[in-house]
Amino acid sequence: MVIQDEEGAFVSARVLHFEGQLVVKEAEAACLLDAMRWVRLLGNRSVEFESDAKCVVDALHSYVLDVTEFGSILNLCRVILVGENNFRLSLFGDK
Fold first, then answer.
1. CB contact set of 45 (below 8 Å; sequence gap of 6+)
2. What is the chain's Cα-based Rg?
3. Is 76 exposed, middle or buried (CB count within 10 Å of its CB: 0-12, 13-18, 19+)?
4. In this structure, are residues 44 and 12 in contact, taking their beta carbons and an 8 Å threshold?
5. Residue ranges in the chain whose pLDDT is less than 70
């Protein structure tokens, strides 16, 4: 994960390691959740998250009930997105 300022300059980075095996979309969603928690912990309140995982971005923008592990992670992301009015999520490259 990389944090950049509004001009795209490097601010900070973080690497994650997960034990066990996750399917790709679960890992992508878990990384997004960790990124949201991380920037909130750092005190950032106006953040544009970009992800190249279309399945995660699309799923977060829809509200189809998903009772899988993937859906549980998405619900935690949604709680943060709803609670932080200035957090936005978009597909990388969609500007």
1. 84, 86
2. 13
3. middle
4. no
5. 95
pTM over 0.85: yes
Q: Taking a C-beta distance cutoff of 8 angstroms, is the pair 5, 11 a contact?
A: yes
Beta strand pairing call for 10-13 and 2-4: antiparallel
- The CA distance from 2 to 59, in Å, is 22
Instruction: For residues 63 and 58, give the distance between their C-alpha atoms in angstroms, rounded to a whole number.
Output: 10
Which of these, 17, 23, 49, 46, lies nearest to 36 by C-alpha position? 49
pLDDT digit string, tens, across residues 8-19 = 899 999 998 888
Task: Provide CB contacts within 8 A for 84, sequence distance 6+.
Answer: 36, 40, 45, 47
Cβ-contact 86, 47 below 8 angstroms: yes
User: Which tokens go with 12?
Assistant: 């900070």
